[in-house]
Amino acid sequence: MRVPAQSVCTAIRDDIVSGVFERGGRLTEEQLARRYGVSRVPVREALRTLESEGFVVTRRHAGAHVAEPTEQEAADLLDMRALLEPLGAARAAQRRTEAHLKVLRGLVRLGQERARRGQGEDLRSLGGWFHETLAQASGSPALTALLTQLRHKIAWMYAVDQPAHPVEAWSEHGAIVDAVARGDAERARALTALHAERSLTLHRLKRPERGRVRVSQHVVNTASGQN
Questions:
Q1: Is 46 left (phi over 0), alpha (psi -120 to 50) or beta?
Q2: Hey, which of 10, 12, 21, 104 has its CA 20 to 30 A from 95?
Q3: pLDDT digit string (tens) for 83-104?
Q4: Sheet with 56-59, side-by-side order of all strands
């Protein structure tokens, strides 16, 4: 069965983000093919994609390595998200579908419910789904892809604390959805910018842990497709 390079790319990216592969660590095609139970062809393609995304660097005479972003580069990620998420929300107010609104409202209801119950881990996942859906509602595949890539990189570089008042944070989500539903692009932009600004204090830069090997049970999706 041929494994799509996209599935291998997702597996490697997830392991980089979670710290299975430490920053600066070498990545060989043979090692990765054995780890994920695939041939070297999709691995080679996946590494090229991850290099274009900034997760991997290729060094002359040394092969592929996990990238080592600087603190400034990490800070730039938050700045870029603060610019792009409000743009996505404004576009969503102009282009969203009823299906997008239904999902967004459902996520807000779940988020508010989980926040009242203090279910922090659920809130982290729900927050990710909320912002992913809001980006998709922008109707711009390029913008959605950029925001998704930024979220992966921020998760790689930062640990994110739960807000002190999660119910209020989810009320902010609800207000954003209300603005999107009314087609009020400027209010959606302003509310999303404020929400992003308030979340900055929750981000703590991760410090790389050298010399420690982590084990992942990542399973590659083996659905047939193009290599």
A1: alpha
A2: 10
A3: 999 999 999 999 999 999 999 9
A4: 26-27, 63-66, 56-59
Q: Dihedral of the CA atoms 5, 10, 11, 17 (nearest 10)?
A: 140
Please write the tens of the pLDDT for every residue from 176-186: 999 999 999 99
How high is the pLDDT of residue 62?
Answer: 86
* Residues in contact with 176: Cβ distance below 8 Å, sequence separation at least 6, in sequence order: 89, 134, 188, 191, 192, 195
SS in 3 state form for 103-157? Answer: HHHHHHHHHHHHHHHCCHHHHHHHHHHHHHHHHHCCCCHHHHHHHHHHHHHHHHH
Element (H, E) at 158: strand 158-160
CB environment 28-44: b (16+ within 10 A), e (fewer)? ebeebbebbebeeebbb
Q: What angle do CA 89, 91, 95 make, to 5 degrees?
A: 115
49 CB-contact burial (10 Å; exposed 0-12 / middle 13-18 / buried 19+): middle
